[in-house]
UniProtKB/TrEMBL annotation:
Organism field: Roseovarius halotolerans
Name under which the protein is recorded: Glutamyl-tRNA(Gln) amidotransferase subunit A
GO molecular function list: ligase activity; transferase activity
Keywords recorded for this protein, A-Z: Ligase, Transferase
Entry similarity comment: Belongs to the amidase family.
Domain of life of the organism encoding this protein: Bacteria
């Protein structure tokens, strides 16, 4: 059931915010112990918000299209009076006293915020596990990862824990997990969603807040609820939009079903009147990886400088300590080189994306891998390096671009395949419009069969 359908049922008096929340709690009680998508559930606050929503509906004073709709928030975004750990023991007792701006926007429209979703330490990993809350599993195959760092958010969404929520993307953290789990996710470009409070920006402006949902209609509603930019009402006609397919991005291997699914998505758009062609990636993969590594490691080193050395060594995992050490080893010339690479990429993006051009790429060259591995050991039968699974992701952040992840089928064993539509800074409405055309033909992912079997007796709100 979508947000709009639920809103209509609320409007007709066929259900209520507390009834929806009660069924949601039953669903979470059944599925969460094995999925481990949530790191904190605030039932007291959620039921209080649901009761306030019911009072507004009874008096005809509903706040907006999200009034009474349960949503979750990633555990690196501040929610007032709710623990926010950033996946680290360093912040295991931290409770913010204010909402981030996007959270305030959701509250202003009546959303019921019920949980925080799991994240790896400092949201800097391609899987979702940490020393505080353990490992999140993929709802389609719990022996596999949902990816990271927004693995908790996509797992919760596709398990039916609410109607979606907010997460962050600094190097693919919304798009890659969405692809691995069949979700729809929007990496917004800098400035589209305001940030007023939060943890230190260790990823510079690479990280932005964006929504995750199970379908593009709900995603658009969530984005419009938190955006701080005006909606673009002068979008080009289909025949004036160029879809540029990118499969060759400097990696020798890609799962064949992913290559086929990406080309099929392009064919679907071509049939609808869009102009399509295929190009080789116009960026240098090694340069993107260099800039991302230097800037993110320097950010972690900067974060470490805020804390007592002994506390940092006691609370922070050894891998992240090594990241900080690498960041401290960088010289000014290294950071300047990274900035020069980013400047070059943004100049290229400004030239390439003219409000009529979209890149169509996979979200990843592989589907979800074993829960026991930090990265896939093999891609398409070939040995893989740690960053190979992210070859299509960080460049979008470095360009300050926007990227929409959509489900585009399954591989030979039924695991979700994701594609992404990428456009320039501030062009969220363009990718959402084209994404709606694509999703209309490709369809949305259904809940995994195991989840449907466990929850089939919970009724329409379950």
């Amino acid at each position: 059931m979508t947000i709009s359908e639920t809103f209509n049922r609320l409007s007709a008096g066929d259900t209520s915010a507390t009834r929806i929340l009660e069924r949601l709690r039953s669903r979470i009680d059944r599925l969460e112990p094995s999925l481990n998508a949530l790191c904190h559930v605030d039932w007291e606050g959620a039921f209080a918000a649901a009761e306030e929503s019911e009072q507004r509906w009874r008096s005809g004073r509903q706040l907006g299209s999200l009034d009474g709709i349960p949503l979750h928030i990633k555990d690196n975004i501040f929610v007032r009076d709710v623990p926010c750990t950033w996946g680290s023991r360093l912040y295991e007792t931290f409770v913010p006293n204010q909402d981030d701006w996007s959270v305030t926007r959701l509250r202003q429209q009546g959303a019921v915020l019920f949980a925080k979703t799991n994240s790896p330490e400092f949201a800097l990993a391609g899987i979702t596990t940490n020393d505080l809350f353990g490992t999140t599993r993929n709802p389609y195959d719990q022996s596999r990862t949902p990816g990271g760092s927004s693995g908790g958010a996509v797992a919760a969404t596709m398990a039916g824990f609410g109607f979606g929520g907010l997460a962050t993307d600094a190097g693919g953290s919304i798009r890659r997990p969405s692809g691995y789990s069949g979700a729809v996710g929007l990496r917004t470009s800098p400035g589209a969603v305001r940030r007023t409070s939060g943890f230190p920006a260790i990823a510079n402006d690479f990280q932005t807040i964006g929504p995750i949902a199970s379908n593009i209609e709900d995603l658009s509603i969530l984005f419009n609820a938190v955006r701080c930019t005006a909606k673009d009402v002068k979008l080009p006609r289909r025949q004036d939009v160029r879809i540029r397919v990118i499969l060759d991005a400097g990696l020798q291997t890609i799962v064949s079903e992913i290559e086929s699914a990406t080309r099929h998505a392009a064919a679907v758009l071509k049939d609808q009147g869009y102009h399509t062609d295929e190009i080789i990636a116009p960026w240098n993969r090694a340069e993107v990886e260099y800039a991302f590594r230097v800037m993110s490691a320097s950010g972690v080193a900067h974060l470490a400088s805020f804390h007592d050395k002994d506390l940092w060594q006691e609370k922070v995992t050894r891998p992240m300590q090594r990241t900080a050490e690498f960041g401290n080893e960088q010289k000014a010339v290294d950071y300047v080189r990274a900035l020069e690479i980013v400047s070059k990429l943004r100049a290229m993006a400004a030239s390439e994306f003219d409000n009529r051009t979209i890149w169509l790429m996979p979200t990843s060259p592989c589907t979800a891998w074993s829960i026991d591995e930090d990265y896939p050991q093999f891609i398409a039968g070939q040995p893989a390096e740690p960053r190979d699974s992210s070859v299509y992701a960080p460049v979008v952040n470095a360009m300050a671009a926007t990227g929409l992840a959509l489900p585009a089928g399954t591989d030979s064993i039924g695991l979700p395949i994701g594609v992404q539509l990428v456009a320039g800074q501030g062009q969220e409405d363009l990718v959402l419009t084209v994404g709606e055309d694509l999703a209309r033909q490709l369809g949305d992912f259904q809940a995994p069969p195991r989840i449907l079997d466990l929850c089939r007796d919970l009724g329409p709100e379950g």
